[in-house]
Amino acid sequence: MAADPDCIFCKIVAGEIPGEVVQRSDDAVAFRDLNPAAPTHVLVVPVDHAENAAATAAADPALVGRLVSVAAQVADAEGLGGDYRLVLNTGAGSGQSVFHTHLHLLGGRPMTWPPG
């Protein structure tokens, strides 16, 4: 896996375009969503490009767990405690619009089920 020169998330990871980064690790970057669906809406993306969560899991299964760990650290830093939702969309039919693996961290309001 490497960067995709046409991927907006790869460009945010590389610092080529601005993003409100809230945390960075060796293999993940967390930044605020431009169109938040909750008071706290942060995207956690792997540094290396992969099209979706299934591709990331196939290439590096442990990386998915590391993304969740980063999300938990961000949730703690944002004061969410244990009340937040994590979402991984895979494929256009699920709502994925940027084809770079990304984990949505949503919190700061009550969440309903089913989500939609």
UniProtKB/TrEMBL annotation:
Residues 8-116 form the HIT domain. This is Histidine triad nucleotide-binding protein. A motif (Histidine triad motif) lies at residues 100-104. Coiled coil: none annotated. InterPro entries: Histidine_triad_CS, Histidine_triad_HIT, HIT-like, HIT-like_sf. It comes from Nocardioides bigeumensis.
